[in-house]
Design goal:
InterPro entries: DUF1289. It holds the Pfam family DUF1289. It contains 2 helices and no strands. With 65 residues, it is mostly helical.
Length: 65
């Protein structure tokens, strides 16, 4: 079950109500477009989470995660 945040996006899947509505009936091209948007949203959330929580890697160090 989806739970929306303040901006109207699901906290779990990051889709808006409109994006979630009748997902299985949407054409493949529309679902693909939404999935690309979700990848962008996840990246922004990850950047936001990492912004203050981790120090910048030192030059020459290898950060795999």
């Amino acid at each position: 079950m989806c739970e929306s945040n303040q901006r109207g996006y699901c906290k779990g899947c990051l889709r808006s109500r409109e994006e979630r509505f009748n997902w299985h009936l949407k054409p493949a091209a529309e679902r693909a477009r939404i999935l690309k948007l979700l990848a962008q949203r996840r990246a922004r959330l990850q950047q936001k989470a990492n912004a203050g929580s981790q120090p910048e890697p030192q030059p020459g160090s290898l950060d795999l995660f």
